[in-house]
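User: quick one - fold this with NAP bound?
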Amino acid sequence: MSKKTAPFRTALVTGADGGLGLEVARQLAAQRARVILHARTAELGERALKNLVTGGAQAERLFVVTADFADLGQVARMARQVAADHAKLDLLVNNAAVFGSPTRTVTADDHEITFQVNYLAPYLLTRLLWPTLTMTPGSRIVNVSSALHRGGRLHWGDVDSTKRYSAVAAYAQSKLALNLFTKAVAERGGADLLAASVHPGLLATDMIRNYTREAGRPVSEGAAAVLHLATAQIEDGGYYEGVAASLPNTLMNDHSSVDRLWKLSARLVGLAA
Ligand SMILES: NC(=O)c1ccc[n+]([C@@H]2O[C@H](COP(=O)([O-])OP(=O)(O)OC[C@H]3O[C@@H](n4cnc5c(N)ncnc54)[C@H](OP(=O)(O)O)[C@@H]3O)[C@@H](O)[C@H]2O)c1
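Assistant: Sure. C-alpha cells for the protein plus NAP:
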C-alpha cells in the first residue's frame, strides 16, 4: 500500500564519508537538500564536506555529525544533536555498515560488532529521531540492506554470535534484522513516515573490494536507487533491489518476529518498547 510522496528538504545520511553514502549525499546536495553527513570522526566528516563542496555543493547546506557506531553512547549523543539542531528531518538513510572481520569482534557495549554497527546503532538512532521524523510530514527512512539477508537467520537467543561466528552469517543476520525493522517502522510510523529497505546492487566500494574480485557497478547506480525510494511511490515497509520491489526473506512478513525484534532491540539499547 502506498502513502503520499514528498520531496526531501533535510536529509541525514549515515556513513557519508565514502562509498555509497558519500554518493547519496552528493546526489541529495545536487537536488538542493540540506544534508547532514554522518562520519565516524570529525576529520572524515570534514573531508567528505570539502569533497562535496569541491564538486559544487553549497557549504551552508551541509552539516557534519560524528559517532562511532561501535559505541551506542556516541550514537545517542549524535541523535540528540541532530534533533536539537534540526527541527525537521525529511529523510534518514541508514547506510553505515561493516562487513564483519574474519574473527568475532566485540564492541564497548559488549555486542558483536556487525550486529551493533549494521543494526542496533541504526535502530537506536531511528528511535531517538522518531519524534523529529514523525513531526515532519511525508518523512522517509531508507535502510540500506543487502540481498545477502535472504540467507540470514535471526539467532534469537544469540544475536551476538557468541556460540558460532562467521562474517557472512553475522552480516546476513544484521541485514535481515534491518529489514524486519523496516517493517516495524512501517507498522508504527503512521501515515506520514514511510520506510523501505534496499539492496543497492554489487557496487565498486571498499566493502566489496575486501571480499570479492568482482568489479562492482558504479556507486552512482546504487545512490540513484536510494534517491528513487526517497521520492517515488513505494510500498511502505517494502524490500527493493535497486528500484524494483523484490521478495525478501519470508521472516520479514512474519508480524510476530517483527514485533519480537523491536522489543528485543529496545531492551538491548535501553529504551521502552
Ligand atoms: N558495496 C556493495 O556492493 C554493497 C552491496 C550490498 C549492500 N551494501 C550496503 O551498502 C551500504 C554502504 O556500503 P559501501 O559499499 O558504501 O561500504 P563502505 O565504502 O565500506 O562504507 C561503509 C560506511 O559505513 C561506515 N562505518 C563503518 N563502520 C562504522 C562505525 N563503526 N561507525 C560509524 N560508521 C561506520 C564507514 O565509515 P569509515 O569510513 O569510518 O569506515 C563508511 O562510511 C552498507 O550498508 C552496505 O552493507 C553494499
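One thing worth noting: The beta strands are 10-13, 34-39, 62-66, 91-94, 139-144, 193-199, 238-241, 244-245.
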